[in-house]
Amino acid sequence: MRGLPVLPAVLLLLLFLAGPIAYCAYIAFTDMRLTGASGTHFVGLANFRQAFADPGFRNAVLLTLLFTVLSSIVGQNTLGLALAAVMRRASRPVRTVTGGVVIVAWVLPEIVAAFLLYAFFRREGTLNAILGWLHLPGQNWLFTLPVLAVSLANVWRGTAFSMLVYSAALAEIPQDVAEQAQVDGASAAQRMWHVTLPMIRRSIGTNLMLNTLQTLSVFGLVWAMTRGGPGNRSQTLPLFMYEKAFQDSLIGYGTAVALLLLAVGALFSVLYLRLLRTEV
Amino acid sequence: MTAARREGGTPRRGARVRRPTRHRLAADAALLLVAVGFAVPLAWLVLASVDPEAGLRVRVPSAPTLGNFSAVLTDEITFTPMLNSLILCGGATALTVACAVLAAYPLSRYRSRLNRPFMLTILFSTCLPITAIMIPVYGLFVQVNLIDTVYGTILFLAAAQLPFCVWLMKNFMDGVPMILEEAAWTEGASFPQTLLRVVLPLMGPGVTVVTIFSFVAMWGNFFVPFMLLLSPDKMPASVTIFSFFGSYGTVEYGQLAAFSILYSLPVVLLYALISRRLGGGFALGGAIKG
């Protein structure tokens, strides 16, 4: 009775979150299609077998891995940590301006960010203008290196989160620890490696996990910048599953891919909970 | 900065008092470099929006005008999509915040064996990639006739945001002392009275942060309305802006930039409103760290 107020939330979550997930697990084993009401049949693991034999699927998995490693693990995480660390030494106005610009990039709606970076990377865009000004050859980045372009776009858009997490983590390190290391003659690099990083390892774990989860499910940014192209050279898993389900009308197959993505997400979530539990 | 200042003030280091300054200059230079890198696309947005002949590269307009803004300030381009966004995100935010407040109260105040598993499930679902379930959601919505309905989309947006809101709200509520409520109970106040008159006013800042945070997240959400709505006249700005520049080639970049600014402005302002609260201790990081 006392728990009654929880009911609306539970209902909403069951109907619109748990329901679709269960439905996802069901459709993934059927041959449901968008067109033709010829009925849906249970096909067992056929969709998964089809996926693993499909070069398009393998391509999407590889691109997703590349996109995640480049943009989330290397890009957002490292740049965010570096920014947070350097900010502690910088003067206040510079810190405020840099933080502000990086956060604005994060707060902007996804499609606006995609549009800005699209303009930046296009053949007639700003990047090539800068390169030309430096007497370096330009190229059509969205065509020649689409994965790099969308990864950099994701770094541009997502670094603020890591920066904020790490700023908070670094602020929690007791001042005397850092000072003691300095008095003992440790260089800045040594202090970072032997003192700071071990002390914020929990934040690093949390941040990597959340960044990766967020990056795995990026759709709008890539879709608006390249639509997965040229060909399928920037078609990450969310785009692949969308194409299968709606352009090829293979709802069952697309959902099987979605279920795999969901499973990877769930795995990361469990790891994340574990990580919290060992430390809390 | 405090580190540098203290270091500079230590007498033992007097001989090398210049070092912190040099360090700070290096740090400033590095930060400014990154800031410029991040600012270039933003600069293009601002400059193109006032440039009557905007292209794709950054350039200072020869004759800046507000023509692009007046060109997009029409019902069709700006007002209808923004109103749709407001209805969708406003409705879903109201729903999710209401559910979150109701759920957070017993979770924060009463002891139950179910609390821990419930909160763990909530935390687990905050991490799930919502993108992955959009195909089955689309399928379900077609079967129960919720597809292309505004309230159906509101319900789904609210549900997708709810785990995070419950988590955040419960943490905020844990920080509100119970003494006043106990007084209200002994005076004979009912549950709704206590929640509305005693707890919510104390929770004001927490509720504001959760409300603004979820509104900002939904305002930028492209995939959910893109999948669940079909009629162009129901589309929020996040989708219409895509169709605006989706038709490559004949795009008026200046107008697109102007519309992007109009569309982004509300969330940037709202974020600025709560950033002081989010920054510093960074409630979000705190919430995520459990």
Automatic annotation (TrEMBL), chain B:
<feature type="region of interest" description="Disordered">
    <location>
        <begin position="1"/>
        <end position="20"/>
    </location>
</feature>
<dbReference type="InterPro" id="IPR000515">
    <property type="entry name" value="MetI-like"/>
</dbReference>
<feature type="transmembrane region" description="Helical">
    <location>
        <begin position="207"/>
        <end position="230"/>
    </location>
</feature>
<feature type="compositionally biased region" description="Basic and acidic residues">
    <location>
        <begin position="1"/>
        <end position="10"/>
    </location>
</feature>
<protein>
    <submittedName>
        <fullName>Carbohydrate ABC transporter permease</fullName>
    </submittedName>
</protein>
<feature type="transmembrane region" description="Helical">
    <location>
        <begin position="150"/>
        <end position="169"/>
    </location>
</feature>
<comment type="similarity">
    <text>Belongs to the binding-protein-dependent transport system permease family.</text>
</comment>
<keyword id="KW-0472">Membrane</keyword>
<dbReference type="Pfam" id="PF00528">
    <property type="entry name" value="BPD_transp_1"/>
</dbReference>
<feature type="transmembrane region" description="Helical">
    <location>
        <begin position="82"/>
        <end position="105"/>
    </location>
</feature>
<dbReference type="InterPro" id="IPR050901">
    <property type="entry name" value="BP-dep_ABC_trans_perm"/>
</dbReference>
<keyword id="KW-1133">Transmembrane helix</keyword>
<keyword id="KW-0812">Transmembrane</keyword>
<dbReference type="InterPro" id="IPR035906">
    <property type="entry name" value="MetI-like_sf"/>
</dbReference>
<feature type="transmembrane region" description="Helical">
    <location>
        <begin position="117"/>
        <end position="138"/>
    </location>
</feature>
<feature type="transmembrane region" description="Helical">
    <location>
        <begin position="253"/>
        <end position="274"/>
    </location>
</feature>
<feature type="transmembrane region" description="Helical">
    <location>
        <begin position="25"/>
        <end position="47"/>
    </location>
</feature>
<keyword id="KW-1003">Cell membrane</keyword>
<keyword id="KW-0813">Transport</keyword>
<feature type="domain" description="ABC transmembrane type-1">
    <location>
        <begin position="82"/>
        <end position="274"/>
    </location>
</feature>
